[in-house]
Give the backbone structure.
Amino acid sequence: MKVLITGATGYLAGHCVAELLAHGYGVRGTVRDLRTADVARLRALAGRMGGELEFVEADLTGDAGWAEAAEGCGYVWHVASPFPTRVPRDEDEVIRPAVDGTLRVLRAARASTTVRRVVLTSSGAAVHHGHDDGRVFTETDWSDLSTAGPYARSKTLAEKAAWDFARETELELVVLNPSTVLGPLLNADVNTSVELIRRIMRGTLPLLPKIGWDIVDVRDLARLHRLAMETPSAAGNRYIAAGQFMWAREMAQVLAGRYRPRGYRIATGTMPYWLMWAVSRVDPSSRLALTFWGRMDRSSAAKAQKELGWTSRPPSDAVLDTAASMIEQGVVPRR
């Protein structure tokens, strides 16, 4: 059975490709450009694993290629979505590609004669933003669009559009809502979710901001996509993918224990809010981080554990494996 993965060269998508190949599935991946080095790397991975992997060109901002991409596939994993490294000047920079791209993929899946189910990668950002009441969030919760930032709005609106489309067309849909994703990089591209680890390891953060998240390992999240595809009763459900909560300072302490003896200068002190605010005036990525200051949003993965038999590794393992892969890929200098 062949599975279509959108944005196949992305961080999570690459692990999804590996998960499917390891379990005997053929994979078709969409990419914007077939000539990139990332495509070549995934082809090499498939060669080592002895799996069937092919690519087609399709872009979330246009209709071309999507019908052809979906036809002949039994399942679709819609993983691709913009994840900004800064607060955009215009929120439509992230909202429109997220919503319109999701609907393009769903329309192609619905029009196909072969697609049985779509697994959509949404986000915890569609679950808990805009709420400050200390609750542990579940799949019944939705982010408050009146107070959510552009990224949270994009994921919330895209997911709601997907559910509306599924109800109207009777398309079989499962949605996953992961928390912050860490874990090993497959190449030297550093996405937004692992940028904090890169900065800690390179010693560019003399103090740690008071920010933190529930952590899910990218390998466990890829496995959850497979379980959501294979489990018949998962149809029509949302599933939160979240592990334990860690503050940035706790991540740094874990890394310091492993890497300080090897010569890495890793800070573990806490940055005061006023300093973070001042830095954010000149650093767009810090401005994005400032929106998470002091928040301890926690979510429960009990539903995925009970209904899909999903388990996740300790967040400290994900933190350490992220750093190890950054050294291996040359993102962080070897000492």
